[in-house]
Amino acid sequence: MDFSLGQDWEITPAGGATGEAFFAKKDNKKLFLKRNSSPFLAVLSAEGIVPKLIWTKRMENGDVITAQQYLIGREFKPNEMADKRVAKQLKKIHESQPLLTMLTRMGKIPFGPAQMLEEVDSTLDQALRNVKLVKDAHEYLRKEITYLDFEEWAVCHGDVNHNNWLISDKNKIYLIDWDGAMIADPALDLGLLLHWYIPKNNWETWLEQYGKPLTSELELRMKWYTVAHTLLSVQWHKNKNRFREMEYWINYLDHFHYE
Q: How do the domains of the chain map onto residue ranges?
């Protein structure tokens, strides 16, 4: 692939689901390149949430190439998600006005519980709807949506998996892979992170580091979004013929209790 970097640059795929990310290497220089990434990247870079954006180039064919600082570091391990820096970084993201302004300018509209339930309703196929764990979870979403109450919209990442958190050799943390960014209830990110990684008896302490008390109302919202996200994950994996992962997320629904 031609990125017009000049001679002697070695370009290699960086992996990932889209196939649009690459590493470029020349002598001791290394860059992370992405094709047609969102203009949102520039604001994320300015806020220090992703590795520094170095340049943006429009190619003759209309593609836009971005080059970011190559990060020497590693992904977070699951048990490191309890680190208070994760809580503080997520709080910074959720409270960022520049991020919210940019997503709004890009035409994003708030993605609330009604939109999420509509996506679940329109996505789940009949075979999955007949699975008891899926059926019970779907009924829970419909029943509890009327009790969800919040007034704050924020930029949410939507997939706070530990693989998307990086720590550099300088001990700085980043949250990457913003393709699914949305304007939503912050409880969406919080719910996924706490349900996936933090033991329930530590939720209060983790949320203190984030800057919020653990209330029954917040707990309900976090649970609701996590159940909805799980149902969407089940169907997504089925569509990709990833049946082992599909079964994992179906069984994960047993983690919830619907009183």
A: 10-70, 77-255
Rounded CA-CA distance 152/185 in Å is: 6
Residue 256 tokens read as 């919830």
Does 77-255 carry CATH code 3.30.565.10? no
Class assignment of domain 10-70? alpha beta
| pTM for this entry | 0.90
Q: Which bin fits 60, alpha (ψ -120 to 50), beta or left (φ > 0)?
A: alpha
Distance between CA 139 and CA 144 in Å, rounded?
9
CA angle (55, 61, 63) in 5-degree steps? 40
Sign of the CA dihedral running 113, 118, 123, 127: positive
Q: Alpha-carbon dihedral of residues 188, 175, 256, 258, nearest 10 degrees?
A: 0
pLDDT under 70: residue ranges of the chain: 1-7, 15-19, 259
Q: Which residues are catalytic?
A: 159
Question: pLDDT per residue over 150-187, tens digit each?
Answer: 889 999 999 999 999 999 999 999 999 898 999 999 99
Amino acid identity, position 81: M
For residue 229, what pLDDT is reported?
A: 97
From CA 61, how far away is CA 44, in angstroms rounded?
A: 26
Alpha carbons 173 and 50: distance in angstroms, whole number = 8
